[in-house]
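Supplementary Data S3. Sequence and structure tokens for construct A.
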Amino acid sequence: MQPDTQFEREVLIRMQKAIEPAWWLSSVADMRWKGVEHAGPFELKGVTFGQKYINLFTKHAMKKAYQEKDNQLFFMQFLMNALILPPSEYFKKEVLDMILDDNGSEEEMELRAELGVQDPEFFQQRLDEILPTFELEYDEEIKKLLESLQPVMS
């Protein structure tokens, strides 16, 4: 049996793909503070849009939890921040449709301006252009286990 000459390289690439969502989310959170800047060989995609999206999503999650006693959106955000729910399940057209229904609030208008399209038909296409693609597959078993805990956390 011949050793795989690319084994180490493939492991390192997979590790990089695994940490990319955490690094991006952490950067998006950190860069909202005055004086924090990104320095590196490449530009971070979708930082401003990501910040505005997360802000409006959090506003909806708080409203739903307070008014309807429904913590489902907080749970969704928890799963995404814990990297159990892939960012692509959080940053997607269906969720964007929901959070853009904010009675013309300032946050909604800012997010719409960053999005740059008004037709919901093009939302997913635009999200795919604005945000990084996180290619690594997530462990569905861990996601199912955490989803089974949702009633306990509600």
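Construct B, processed identically:
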Amino acid sequence: MRIGLFVLVALFVTGCAQFGATGTDGTAGQQPGKVDKPAPAATPAPAVSAPAATATVNEDPRRIDFGLMTVALDEAAKTKIAALVVQAKAAKNVSVRGYCDRTKIGNAKDAALARAKAVRDELVRAGVPAKKIHLHFTTDKPDSSAVVSFDTND
């Protein structure tokens, strides 16, 4: 029984391949020596633009974001820090506060300080004197960042 069904299906598929399936214009398959025209392309739907993310509009340029489990700077963070170098060089003191949520990370203090140190090290590489950079940490806020602030008072 299965063999008969298999043979029947094979003959049906072979027949369709030999004679061609009915096209969209009602004709059966392509005739020898004749080239079918491609179907006209569908008109794409108009693009709907999403509203701009408010995070980029209201983003604090002094805030350097980190992933939840990271203390390494990515290229975006390095670019933000580079934009702060002129201000940092002109300031009397620079504070870098690292943040890490102690409810999510067991060694939150170490992680927060490591984030602050990563930012400090990048500022020092850019020419800011290390002696004027002071490190701080906060572990009681749900945050994974470091924030740079400047003291311009004499």
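Helices lie at 2-19, 54-57, 75-90, 108-125. The first strand starts at residue 63 and ends at 65.
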